[in-house]
Amino acid sequence: MADSIVLVSGGMDSAVTAAIAASVGPPAFLHINYGQRTEGQELKSFNAIADYYGVEERLVVDISYLKKIGGSALTDAAIEIPEGDLGRQGVPLTYVPFRNANFLSIAVSWAEVIGARSIYIGAVEEDSSGYPDCREAFFAAFEKAANLGKKPGAEIKIVTPLIHMRKADIVRKGVELKAPLHLTWSCYRDETLACGECDSCLLRLRGFTEAGAADPISYRERAAF
Question: Alpha-carbon distance 117 to 4, whole Å?
Fold first, then answer.
């Protein structure tokens, strides 16, 4: 039986989070399709990471209602993915309204069924794109609400091991734990070749550069840092 549930998007942060969870005990992996532009590639990466860790207890859930709700460049084709700008202030167009609350609600439901006591999510507050649902205070509040709303029994802990790390630190941790960074996908725009220009690609490329490591995936353009 799994000790924990890990939300695995297929991106680098979730892969490193999975490596951390796997070092503690056997995890179950949860992946959520929500109508995002790179849904197919993210699912492929999720399954590849799950295979890498030999995780048989995995669940893929579709909540494409987030695409119907819209309001994000990740789910609405009419909203263009902006050029990357790591100095941008405020909430970016790629923010999916209250996405992490939806994800965590599903994870808590599954945790109740399989008896998992921890839910790992690779959210980053220190070096992120400015998403309000990636803040430590949000996860603390959600954990409290989840434990108030679930059936009686041992409490569920929401674990955010990367929350105060910068991308370079995440890269170093991934290398240290031999996480399958070569299987991950971070690009917001494309499914075949990472654009190298969106915020997510730029954060990743800067992280690898600052960590003094080579990014194992290919890009159409590689920004210099």
Answer: 6
Give dist(CA 29, CA 122) in Å, integer: 13
CB contact at 8 A, 64 and 215: no
pLDDT at residue 127 greater than cutoff 80: no
Q: Where are the beta strands (DSSP E) in 20-160?
A: 27-33, 58-62, 118-120, 157-159
Residue 105: what pLDDT?
A: 98
Pull the structure tokens for residue 205: 């490329």
Give the separation between CA 4 and CA 156, rounded to whole angstroms: 10
Instruction: Starting at the earlier edge strand, list the strands of the sheet with 27-33.
Output: 58-62, 27-33, 4-7, 118-120, 157-159
User: Tokens 């070092």 belong to which residue?
Assistant: 23
For 4-185, CATH number out of 3.30.70.260, 3.90.226.10, 3.40.50.620, 3.30.2270.10 equals: 3.40.50.620
pLDDT tens digit sequence for 186-197: 999 999 999 999
| Rg, C-alpha atoms of the chain | 17
pLDDT of 1 above 90: no
- Of 40-54, 114-128, 200-214, minimum mean pLDDT range: 114-128
The answer, as to whether pTM is greater than 0.85, is yes
What is the rounded CA–CA span in Å between residue 119 and residue 27?
Answer: 9
Q: How is the chain split into domains, by residue range?
A: 4-185
**CA-to-CA distance for 168 and 166, rounded, in angstroms?**
5
